[in-house]
Design the sequence.
């Protein structure tokens, strides 16, 4: 399907369809069902607003995962006992 036959642009987003911000958190976590994942991916190809929001969420998720990995090896900001503390960024 070339998109022109159904009135749907080739990006997969019907004219006037809403932004996908409510789905972005689940998209970052990889928990959307396939048709929702495809909708979000298609939307992100042409919508700078949603893409910027997604990139911020993806960066935060990557940082969270890195911190969790550090904590699993006892190298997190909380020290060897794993109790709270502040994140110390390298200078």
Sequence:
């Amino acid at each position: 399907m070339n998109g022109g036959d159904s009135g749907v642009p080739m990006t997969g987003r019907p004219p006037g369809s809403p932004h996908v911000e409510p789905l972005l958190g689940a998209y970052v976590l990889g928990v959307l069902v396939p048709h929702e994942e495809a909708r979000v991916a298609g939307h992100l190809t042409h919508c700078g607003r949603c893409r910027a929001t997604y990139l911020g969420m993806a960066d935060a998720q990557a940082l969270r995962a890195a911190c969790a990995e550090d904590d699993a090896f006892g190298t997190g900001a909380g020290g060897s006992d794993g109790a709270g503390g502040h994140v110390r960024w390298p200078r």
